[in-house]
Amino acid sequence: MTGITLRLITAGLLAAASASYAMAQDATAIRIVLPEQPANLEPCGTIITNVGQILAQNVVEPLTVIDAATGQPRPKLATEWSQVDPQTWRLKLRDGVTFQDGEPFNAAAVAFSIERMTGGKLNCNNMAKFGDAKLTVTALDDLTVEIKSDRPEPILPTLLSVVMVVSPKTPADKAVNDPVGTGPFRLKTFNTQTVELVSFDKYWGDKPKVTAATYVWRAESSIRAAMIETGEADLTPSIAIQDASNPETDFSYLNSETTAIRIDAAQPPLDDLRIRKALNLAIDWDGLAQLFGDDIKRASQMVVPGINGHDDALSPWTYDAAEAKKLVEEAKAAGVPVETEITLIGRNGIYPNGSEAMEAMVAMWQDAGLNVKLTMLDVADWLRYLQKPYPENRGANMLQMMHDNNKGDAAFTIPIFYRSTGNYATVNDPALDKQVDEALAATGDDRTAKFKALFAKVRTDVVSDIPMFHMIGYTRVGKRLDWKPDITTNSEIPLANIGIKS
Amino acid sequence: MLRYLGRRASYSLISIIGLVTLVFFLTRLTGDPSALYLPLDASADARAQFARLNGLDQPAIVQFFTYLGNLAQLDFGQSLRQNRSAMEVALEAFPETLKLAFLAIALATSLAIVVGSLAAARPGSLFDRIASLVSLAGASAPDFWIAIVGILLFAVGFGLLPTSGTGSAAHWVLPIFVLTLRPFGLLVQVVRGTMLSALSAAYIKTARAKGMPRREIIFGHALRNSLLPIVTVAGDLATGLVNGAVVVESIFGWPGIGKLMIDSIIQRDFAVVQSTILVTAVAIFLLNIAIDLLYAFLDPRIRY
């Protein structure tokens, strides 16, 4: 028995040694390793990271795309658009586009895709970014559609960037795992171990250099990084900072996420402006930044640079422990119950070193004279505090959070946090509500200026949050690829943008 | 024998029904899946729609009877994550775990029998000491550490093996090695202990006095009489592996049922949790029957 076993082991090791695990494949085929298995491949779920990174701009395409630098919508399947009246937009569609199943792309297909998404017959994650406006889509001719909404939608072209156009043969009432779109790649296989995309010969645009892509998934960041190093894969997004150790292959990039602490401004002592300012001043921001790496960017507002409404001139709160203590003392002298216990609600695993950051901040607030205690919760419990209706008798609390806005416009941030009806809002100020509504109804430069004014007001006069950092992501890219990540990488990895070094 | 099997099957059926009921209600206690399936900024309407479309807006007891009714028609429900039959998801993953478990336990048992028997034949020798040291280290070392070190050494360092995944014979080497180590360590200790008692029994002394070859005494007589405790422990270890080797499956990207089960619990994919537990419960029932039959085969005094 021993002899047989030893022979088997030796044979296995010899076979292994003789094999090469760097990829033996077509030079234009690439392999991408994701942190998570995509749960499904429903095109209406492309805002989910691992679905979007496979499907968006590869298999399915939207009517518009957001320019990563300017935050403005650019043509994709719609070539031009105009606003007929505050509630009506007219779009001209791209000619000569065919779906991967041979169906023609036209106004009827656009109407079908919008109805499928907004009709309420299937769970559509993308609706969270689209809002709840009721739309009526009319085909004026084969390549022109008119979209009417039940309320003014000044940024409809931006909203349309989350509408993935699918073949009219797609079931309208159930989610699918075999999406058919107009993108440069079509789905070849999807199973529990891989997703394979191959190039679509009748694609309307330029032919990508990559001809096929295989996606696999490994949860461990160190394993994914090792796969790029050994040549088993070409690209992996979202590796941990400690694995980003090779300057030749590892790229840091400002992603679209902003970390912050939300202050429940309705609860004493947090209802006092001096206390909320003291909370911002008491943090040693340079020290805290060391937890997140050298490239981290300090935040003064809840949207990242490049999003319409972001104000570069708005400076973040600086560290001033003496001023923080003074403000707490002043509040105490004025009868504010500063000794009341404030619960800081953290979320396990929200971002790397998230719990360490919370512990450090609690210590700094205690030094400033505030009675802050930390409670770490799992996501489901934490959600109860994030969204309205908030738990009754929750007491004075602050919430650790991370907000992602890569959709080009502060409209995806401001009303949620700062309008009294907002799902995450803790302030209730009719004057602020009016200002938010005016900004949302505005267009062009006026819209940008109004958003900037709002962020400035929130930072200085309202102080309902403690913006922390605009977060950095790390991606490892194999040496044979010519590609760098950007702010959109967390939501899509367009294969057409990837070059192959000769 | 048939009567015994029928009795075991009926007991197991009762246990499985109890388990299914318990799992159904325990999963519902974990909370509302819409909190995890929909984006953080989904509206209340979207959450209500999600609940309605998936039957989660009904009281738990109504959902339970619907589930039982569907179960009677072999409808195990739809996976919320994967948009397909939950049982299809579970049955796709289970053979991958079964293959790993079978190979690991077969290898661990074979090696442990040889090493443990030889160590017991010469107690206190250098071989015995080395075997004890290696087996203790194997039984104590954490899986994830062995796995990561194995990848760094053999995949990144020497380039001999792939880091992870499936596809070739070489992909099996590291996962099997990691999975085999702990059962091997435990079983060497068990084999050595039982063989030490067997080798000091009177019939072994008689065999030695009669001049029987040493190899036949150890493997032909002492080992056969020591097999029952070894089978018991190996069976217990196999049961643990059939439940899923979560750490190994996660690190090596092995699409097995252990990782599926944990992911489904975290994601509140109720139908998949129920299906994976049902599949593993039936597998464990069958494994226990096989172990009982093996007892009867190994020891003629055992009759059912």
Describe this structure in words.
- Chain B: Its main location: membrane.
- Chain B: InterPro entries: MetI-like, MetI-like_sf.
- Chain B: Pfam families: BPD_transp_1 (PF00528).
- The complex is a heterodimer of chains A (502) and B (304).
- With 502 residues, chain A is α+β, with helices and mostly antiparallel strands.
- Chain A folds into 3 domains: 3-39 and 50-58 and 185-253 and 474-500, Periplasmic binding protein-like II (D-Maltodextrin-Binding Protein, domain 2); 61-165, Dipeptide-binding Protein, Domain 1 (Dipeptide-binding Protein, domain 1), CATH 3.90.76.10; 254-472, Dipeptide-binding Protein, Domain 3 (Dipeptide-binding Protein, domain 3, Roll), CATH 3.10.105.
- In chain A, 27% of the residues lie in helices and 23% in strands.
- In chain A, strands 13, 14, 15, 16, 17, 18 and 19 form a 7-stranded mixed β-sheet that branches.
- In chain A, helix 10 links the parallel strand 16 (342-347) and strand 17.
- The model of chain A is unreliable at 13-20 (pLDDT under 50).
- Chain B has 2 domains: 2-72, no CATH class; 90-303, MetI-like (MetI-like fold, Orthogonal Bundle).
- Chain B has 13 helices and no strands.
- The mean pLDDT of chain B is 89.
- Chain B is an all-alpha fold.
- Chain B is 77% helix and 0% strand.
- Chain B has helices at 2-29, 34-37, 44-53, 60-72, 86-121, 126-140, 143-157, 170-199, 202-209, 214-242, 246-251, 257-267, 270-298.
- Chains A and B meet through helix 1, helix 4, helix 6 and helix 11 of A and helix 2, helix 3, helix 5, helix 7 and helix 8 of B.
Characteristics of this structure?
heterodimer; A: 502 residues; alpha+beta; D-Maltodextrin-Binding Protein, domain 2; Dipeptide-binding Protein, domain 1; Dipeptide-binding Protein, domain 3; seven-stranded mixed sheet; four-stranded mixed sheet; 23% strand; globular; B: 304 residues; mainly alpha; MetI-like fold; 2 domains; 13 helices; 77% helix; flat; Peptide/Ni-bd (chain A)
